[in-house]
Amino acid sequence: MKATAFIRKSASKNDTNSVATIYFRLRDGKKDIKAASELTINPNHWSSEKQGYKDRVALVHEEKKLALNNEVQNIINLISQEYTPEADSEWLSTLIDKYHHPNRYKTEEEIAAETKPTLLDLFAEFLVKHKLSEVRIKNFRVVQRALARYELYVRTTKRGQKGFILDVDLVTPDTLRDMWDFFQNEYQYYELYPSIYEAIPEKRTPQPRSKNTLIDCFSRIRTFFLWCFDNKRTTNRPFDKFPIEECTYGTPYYITLEERDRIFNADLSATPQLAIQRDIFIFQTLIGCRVSDLYRMTKLNVVNEAIEYIPKKTKEGNPVTVRVPLNGKAKEILERYKEYDGKLLPFISEQKYNDAIKKIFKLAGVDRIVTILDPLTHNEIKRPIYEVASSHLARRTFIGNIYKKVKDPNLVSALSGHKEGSKAFRRYRDIDEEMKKDLVKLLD
């Protein structure tokens, strides 16, 4: 037996207004029955292969796409679960109507028991009502989609759990441990249960999650539970008996001013596109911003020989304007691109920028070995710095070299945009070998 969804209507290429009813079809041997649902979609947005929205539909909000894809998958799962050999068209129509209007088929007692919102309903409400920055909302939505896939995973793999729905009142530390296992091994389940990822896709193929990433994910789930508790949506506090460790990071590495200048002066005339990205990287080392803030900059961010911007990561909570005066090298780079229209500099995608940085380091001969923590095993490993160089290394270079000179965290954080008491910033206090040597000399 196989159940699928399909549409019967088509639309012209640029038609964004037409809607088509989504039908469901059940085939079993010679049996082939169909019935309409109450779900609709623009024909140009439908993917028969994905059984829902196409991957890239710019005009439709991600939550709307996710909701419809979930609905389609839920009906397909329901047909598969309830199917009997006696099923006919009337049975299929009734089953779909029952899905859309369950209360028509339930007693008053059953209706009263099912009016409470699910955990995912509350999570959606949390994202609307809890004050979060754009970056944090994006991160929370990654967790939201993973929780929705966890629901489907339990329904698919665990006996007697075909109707499983996450309930905020019923989540226990054992549930959280099971979620942790799912989050940790999701890259394997992508291959084993493709229908889950067709229903709730990600832009990129799932990769192994490091322990730090898992800690970040569960810290966000804990934030959601605390919001539910504070807003009297539940009395359940499962994280009280599910402690979350602190993230573990290696000592930040950064390039010296000599290495920076070697990159700045490297002859990249044979690769002009890399030369442009080299200039952008050096400029980033001179203003110390995150790449997300750099990519939003235009020439309007240059104010009285300084760069001014509000860090995107913190602008929702306590917005502070960061002002970084431009030194000679920074002004020289901006002068090279003064005729460039649009953004401040000729930016490419962040991924291509990171790829270019690695190539630039190698061509410039910046290849010393650095010690890093393997994100998955947390074991120390040695790598040439050009293999691990990225846009964030520019930010670390800015912070590390200035901190080395002034040793005043308040001054440095005023230029870097770190908020007061930032755990990330405190790590930079351990990075200067020369500072350690100076201290030891005090014992002579």
Automatic annotation (TrEMBL):
One MF annotation (Gene Ontology) recorded for this entry = DNA binding
Q: Which UniProt keywords apply?
A: DNA recombination, DNA-binding
What name is this protein filed under?
Recombinase
Q: Which CDD domains match?
A: INTN1_C_like
Matching entries from Pfam families are given as:
Phage_integrase
Its domain of life reads: Bacteria
Gene3D superfamilies reported for this sequence: Intergrase catalytic core
Q: Which InterPro entries match?
A: DNA_brk_join_enz, Integrase-like_cat_sf, Integrase_catalytic, Tyrosine_recombinase_XerCD
Cite the Tyr recombinase domain residue spans from the record.
Answer: 250-441
Which processes are annotated in GO (biological process)? DNA integration; DNA recombination
Q: Which family does it belong to?
A: Belongs to the 'phage' integrase family.
Keyword Transferase tagged: no
